[in-house]
Each structure stands twice: as C-alpha cells, then as structure tokens.
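Protocol step 4 of 5: obtain the predicted structure for the target chain.
Materials: sequence only (see below). No template structures provided, no constraints applied. The aim of this step is simply to have a reference model before the mutagenesis design in step 5. Sequence pasted as it appears in the construct record:
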Amino acid sequence: MKMLPSIRTIMLKTITLSLVLLTLVLAGLSFAELGNKEKVRENVVDLLRSAGMNKQVDAPVTVKAGRSGVLGVEDKGTFFMQYFIVGPGKSSDPNVVLTGKFNIPPSAKKAVIVTHGWIDKGIDDWPGQIAKEISRRVDPNEWICAVFDWHGGAAVINPIDAAKYAQEIAGPRLAKTVLTSGIELEHIHLIGHSAGSWVINSAAQIIAGKTDTVIHMTFLDAYVPPGWDSTQLGKNQSSGWSEHYYTKDYTLQTTEMELETVHNVDLTGIEPGFHEHKFPYRWYYATITGSYGLEGREKRKKLYFTNGDIEYGFGRSAEAGPENWQKSLTLKKGNSPVVLKKGNTIMEKIKFWE
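Step 4 output (structure tokens):
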C-alpha cells in the first residue's frame, strides 16, 4: 500500500521550497514588480513551469474508488504552492482526475463526505474509518460514501493558514468535484472536524448556490480563528440542517463556540478524563458503530448520546433513516447548547445498529 508522506515531511519540504523560491524571485524581479502581488505570482509560476514543475503548480483533485467502496477524494495541492504562490483565485478551480474503475449505481442520489482538520489527513485515517462505517449502514444503491483529503493544505504551522486554505481553496475544490461528477444529488451530508469545518461550509455554499441539493452539515469541534465571523458556519441556501458537536478543551474559545446558524450540542460532560479536541470525531464514530473504536481513552467506556428522546450523532442524519432526518429538521438552530450528560443512554435498542 502506498503510504502518504508524513505531515512533518510535507512541512519541511514546504519551508525549503519557500526559501529557494524567495531567493529566485527577489533575484529576478525589479522593485516595481515586487509591489505588484499578481505580477510576482505570474513571474514565480512562469519560473516554476520553466523548471518542469507543472505537476505541482497545477495540482489536481483525484478521485479513486477504494476497496471498501468508499471513494477517496484527494486534493493534491499544498498551502505554499496553491495558496501562497499560485493564489486562491486560480487554485480553487482545479482539474478533477478520475482514477480506476467506478461502480456507482444510477439510483445513488445521496452522498456523505467526511473530512479532517489542521495537521491531519483523511485517506487511511479516521475520516476514512467513519465513511467506511457509514457505508456499512446505508443502501449502496442510494448512497455514495467518500472521504476528502486535503492534507497538503492542512500541513502548516499556523492553524489560521489551514482555515484560510480550507475556506478559499479546499472547499471550492470539493464543490467542483461534486458539481462535475455528473450525479444530480438530492441530498449531501458533509462532516468536518476543526479547520475542516471551513472546507465543508465553503463547499456547501457553492453547491447550494448552483443546485437544489438538500445539505446537511456536521461540524465537529469547529475551529473559528480570532476575528473570523462564526455566523458564516452553517449558513447556506439549501433546505437542510446543520449541527455542531463540541467539547470545552485546551483549544478554548476557538473551538467551543455556540454557532448561531446551527443546532449546538455540548459533549464536555460525557468525555472521560481530560478534554481534548479529537473527542468529538471519536464520539461521532461511536454513535455509528455503537461503541468507541478509534484511538483514545474512551475504549471500553460507556457511550452517551441522547438527551430525552433525541438521539444525537449519527442518529440525526438521513443515513440513519428518513424519520430521523425529518426530526432533525424540527430542531432549533442557534440554540443554547443541548448538554449531553452521563447516565442518559438507550444503546440497547437503536434500530440503525441492528
């Protein structure tokens, strides 16, 4: 199996390439040209192309069918090349390359796509595991399950840069992949963790503006950089619904905001031990399978996911059944958070685990 390059390797290569290109650019441009950002971009891009780096400059999005039936959608771009050098304006409109054979039934008009956040990856990692578990619980004649990997844009030192790439490049790239697939989706469920929340939010806004697709967004510990407008998360023009599951962890206010346009759920009270940023996606995985299975301190711990008669997590999705989804549409957005507590569970008789 071909292994993805480590995040550390990507970051070291990025820093090295940055220094080399900066030296070349400064040596080849006049002071007047240095004051024109677009002129600088054009000169650097021309320089890279002349050096045979078309592949890096024109980094595509690839789509590949996995052995488990889950589609792997990978953004081949990097923050330095696509955001800093080429620029978001051009990088947000990539070539979409299909690799391998696909067996998607014409009747499949619904999709779920899972993505990661800062310094993380999707394929062969937790987003892929979540997509795989969902694929086991839905009808393959109705649903397409996929993971979106943008690790090259997420491998940056500053999480704000990851959020910028997510919103301005990765999200539009994901949207283009969906819109050019040739499949007229009736429903799409986008799941994003941390900075990946801006990926799914940006993609949703573009898709909503061009189709009538019903959009469901699930934000897992959404990261909102200082000064950013949190009301933009979950704001789209579809007839869908959005939710935010968060815990009060070491990231403090940047990931525990009560979002105004979504249904908020506080998981802090059901997390074992100290609180951490990764817990919401491990909890969401558990609501699909019925028990904690990803890495973490929760293994063999009891799963709590209800408030009254409302099941949260996977149970709020259309994948869990049409009645579940219709109930979700009645839940208030911009609410004071629903606080999940230990001792409230109906694990034994949840129909979508049977």
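Step 4 remarks: The chain has two domains: 1-57, 59-353. Residues 59-353 form a domain with the Rossmann fold fold (CATH 3.40.50).
Proceed to step 5.
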